[in-house]
């Protein structure tokens, strides 16, 4: 399958939000009839700020003139450290291919393109979260597990 990557820009705002909602429904198993209007609007606000200021790079995977997948990457600064001397980080997220094109290189093409974008910006720390299904792909691309990471569950943060 021939897949090309097209970088999204602010003119793609409606399309970005549409794809983000599709991803959220699948990844978080949100029922199709559940109201996600507020979440949709928060994502719209995020893209409206982050795309123009360069803190988020988004892309679409296109095959035969049709968008078949998407991906994104948050760019941010952390304190410099020995394993990240310039403190620049990239968090790859929202990697998605429609079911009918999975296991045909779409995800690999998206992630490879995003990695190249990070490398071209001299960003040495690139990471992501994954499902078990995605783990083999990311390992093939060179990602390794981080055994020393922890996360505070959302419900604990709200208290």
Structure, described:
It is a single chain. The chain has helices at 13-27, 37-53, 106-120, 135-140, 154-158; strands at residues 4-7, 56-63, 66-77, 88-97, 125-128. 24% of the residues are buried. Helices cover 36% and strands 24% of the residues. It has a five-stranded mixed sheet, sandwiched between helices. The longest helix is centred in the first third of the chain and has 17 residues, at 37-53. It is an alpha+beta fold. It contains five helices and five strands, in the order E-H-H-E-E-E-H-E-H-H. The protein has one domain (4-141): Gcn5-related N-acetyltransferase (GNAT) (Aminopeptidase), CATH 3.40.630. The termini are far apart.
What is the gist of this entry?
It is built from 5 helices and 5 strands; from the N terminus they run βααβββαβαα. It is an alpha+beta fold and 159 residues long. It has a 5-stranded mixed β-sheet with strand order 1-2-3-4-5, with helices on both faces.
Main β-sheet: number of strands, strand sense, barrel status? 5 strands, mixed
Residue share in β-strands: 15-25%
What is the CATH superfamily classification? Gcn5-related N-acetyltransferase (GNAT)
Structural class: alpha+beta
The overall strand count is 5
Radius of gyration: 16 Å
* Inertia-based shape: globular
User: What low-confidence regions span 5 or more consecutive residues with pLDDT below 50?
Assistant: none
CATH topology: Aminopeptidase
């Amino acid at each position: 399958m021939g897949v090309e990557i097209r970088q999204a820009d602010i003119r793609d705002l409606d399309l970005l939000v549409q794809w983000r909602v599709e991803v959220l429904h699948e990844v978080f198993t949100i029922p199709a009839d559940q109201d996600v209007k507020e979440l949709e609007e928060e994502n719209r606000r995020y893209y409206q700020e982050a795309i123009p200021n360069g803190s988020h790079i988004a892309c679409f995977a296109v095959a035969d003139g049709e968008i078949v997948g998407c991906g994104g990457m948050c760019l941010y600064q952390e304190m410099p450290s020995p394993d990240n001397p310039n403190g620049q980080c990239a968090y790859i997220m929202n990697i998605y291919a429609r079911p009918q094109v999975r296991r045909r290189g779409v995800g690999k093409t998206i992630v490879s393109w995003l990695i190249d974008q990070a490398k071209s910006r001299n960003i040495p720390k690139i990471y992501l979260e994954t499902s078990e299904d995605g783990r083999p792909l990311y390992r093939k691309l060179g990602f390794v597990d981080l055994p020393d990471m922890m996360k505070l569950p959302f419900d604990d943060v709200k208290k």
